[in-house]
Each structure stands twice: as C-alpha cells, then as structure tokens.
Design brief:
This protein has 2 domains: about 80 residues, Glutaredoxin (3-Layer(aba) Sandwich); about 110 residues, Glutathione S-transferase Yfyf (Class Pi), Chain A, domain 2. The radius of gyration is 17 Å and the shape is globular. Helix content is about 50%, strand content about 10%. The protein contains 10 helices and 4 strands, in the order E-H-E-H-E-E-H-H-H-H-H-H-H-H. The protein is α+β, with helices and mostly antiparallel strands and about 210 residues long.
C-alpha cells in the first residue's frame, strides 16, 4: 500500500518527513490532522499514537510508526536511493544523529505549546521560556557545524540533520530571531535549502491544510 502520512502543516516533525519523501521521490498519501481542533486527541488518532503525536506514518494496514526519527530511519532503510539521509559512512551517520538530537531532544520539545503551558499561563513568560531553549539549541548546533558544514550541515550533501534544522529555524523566525545576525552558518544553510524544490514543496505553507490567514 502507499504509505499514509498523518500530519499537521505547521508541525516541524511532519515537515521533516514530508521533505524526506520528496527527496527520495516516494509517493505517499497525506492526511491532515488538525491540532487546533484537537483532532490529534481523538480516539482514532490516539489509536495511531499513544501520545497523540504527529507525524504518524501508516506503513501497512493498522501498522503505525510515530516519532519522526523512527519514520526517517524506516524511509532510509526501506528506500535506499540517494540522497542518504544518514550519510554515506559511519562517521557521518553518528554525527548526523548527534545533530538531529540537538533539535529533537534539546530544542524542539521545549518550545511547544504543551511545554510553554506547563511552564506558565502568562504569555510573556511562555515566550521567554521557549526562546531560551531555542537560542541554546541553535547556538549549540551552530558551534557543532564550524568544521564540518559546506552547502549543508554535513559538507555538500543534504542529510537528516538539515531536515531537523530547517523547520526549527523556520520556527525561530516566527519567535523573532534574526538568523543572519544570530546564527550566520545556520542562516546560510537555511537559504541554500530554500533554493531547492524539495524543501519548498514540503514547507508548511504549501500543504493542503495550511491556514491562509
């Protein structure tokens, strides 16, 4: 069966998976799940993901994968065509995973509405909380790239590290960060990626469920 991707247009993790499918030229069915309407908490979706998380990939009837890292690894191992999301050799593979986890574990989860709401009910405090962790994560990512980046995070080959980084930078801009000023290496990679068709077509505003206002 064609894989079914349950996602939300503005979900960073959903974007990572859409982008991977686009890079690998893999057809899939996209099924929007509206977080703002609570559709991710519905019984139907909770049966797909114990946390009600997005994205979820249905790879066979009633066989679901959640968490974007797991899904990207499934894509890489199932479709071995270039580009290689986790690099050509082991030295690249482990560095790519390290970079992904800076975003996946130490940055993105701490800027979500769920984390902000747990921290405070005051809008200014929620924003301050989120921006603290975005800045820390992106500074660490920038420092980690100083001797290894080229056009992309790992030299001149796009990888999963870029797929994790770019959606986070997109969110950082929404939080008011000036990428070129604050993170020059990351800003350069951001601009390079947005020159590619695969990045553009998988971006949030290009999705069928994107809000137009």
């Amino acid at each position: 069966m064609k894989a079914k991707l349950y996602g939300y247009w503005r979900s960073s993790a959903s974007w990572r998976v859409r982008w991977a499918f686009s890079l690998k030229k893999i057809p899939y069915e996209y099924i929007p799940v509206n977080i703002l309407k609570g559709e991710n908490r519905s019984p139907e979706h909770m049966a797909r993901s114990a946390l009600g998380a997005l994205p979820v990939l249905e790879i066979a009837p009633d066989h679901f994968l959640s968490q974007s890292m797991s899904i990207l690894m499934w894509i890489e191992e199932t479709f071995s065509s270039k580009p290689y999301l986790f690099g050509k050799d082991r030295s690249h593979r482990y560095k790519i995973i390290e970079l992904c986890e800076i975003i996946n574990s130490d940055t993105a989860p701490l800027q979500t509405p769920r984390a902000q709401n747990a921290h405070s009910s005051v809008a200014e405090e929620k924003m301050k909380f989120a921006k603290t962790f975005i800045q820390q994560g992106l500074l660490a990512f920038e420092k980690s790239l100083k001797n290894i980046s080229g056009e992309y995070c790992i030299q001149n080959e796009i990888s999963a590290a870029d797929l994790f980084l770019i959606p986070q930078l997109y969110n950082a801009k929404r939080f008011g960060f000036e990428l070129e000023k604050d993170f020059p290496i990351l800003s350069r990679i951001y601009n390079t990626c947005f020159e590619t068709e695969e990045c553009l077509t998988s971006a949030p505003e290009k999705q069928i469920d994107a809000l137009k206002t």
